[in-house]
């Protein structure tokens, strides 16, 4: 199959790293894949990730021989500015890496003076949650709905925004755990010391709740003595000062700020940790590369029990409430500190599970099934695009009555049969039955 994979692809982009893993796996299975970069401005000139796959520029035309386009969306306009041009031209599979896309919308307006399309009837999406499992901010639903409505199918990397996307997308929507490569574990072995170490890594912001960790450490200090809090990643100066002041007020040691680290240096910090925290509040992303990276390190892990974090087995990681509660975080740390042998065993089992679950092979196994399902309905979606382009009044405005009539007729004639597929062979067998 001829696939155009639309993505940011500079060396600083985690979505670019994910894209290389998936595209190279697709190529290994016989697909012809071309990558199209979609960054704008200076970001479009940043060095590309190394790959043998052909890379097209953000302004290049869509090749005429493409069978399917797959577009990656993220909440950063400079990285994803070119996606709208492609989505307007081709009904693609949309991969949503974020559940919050308002920064993308705002960036497109500020940087490119481009207004986002809207979906008729979107007020209902904004004012009512499609599902109690959906935690997308109501104000963020219209932008997700608009992008999903332009797609022929969609991928989300967690269950927490699937209902919003599925409510608008005309094709199948699947929850696929994100795939991400192992940054490589250093040869440094964890050594037990009298001083415990707890690490939060990535871009250090209030969303990752380092203040919650400092308060938990304060509650445990009398029982366990000094506990080091390591913050490995870039942090704004004002927030660094804020955390330093919080630590002083609580009577705990100032956090150890590592700043941005190379993969090797980050792995060394994580390997020495007695516990790693991947906390989020609120959750704005889809899947979590941080979660996957932490699990690869084989160290005890504490997560908020929400979104993609909740998809990992309970017996492999320590899950706490999604919120600001301190006592359950302190309890999880206490269990790890009191029984390090059991916690280490859990962590090693989690690493083995992650290496399979988050591999590109596992991801593409499921992606190929979705591609096959989308190809079934793609001719209908393409035909509808052509028809609806004529459902306009003489002054150029859309005619809702005509559009709704087309949608209703299409739903009755072409609504896909409901299948449960276990693998691609099972899909093909059911399609032939």
Automatic annotation (TrEMBL):
Signal peptide: none annotated. GO terms for molecular function: glycosyltransferase activity. Keywords: Glycosyltransferase, Transferase. The gene is wcbH. Residues 197-352 form the Glycosyl transferase family domain. This is Glycosyltransferase WcbH. CDD domains: GT4_PimA-like. It comes from the Bacteria. It holds the Pfam family Glycos_transf_1. InterPro entries: Glyco_trans_1.
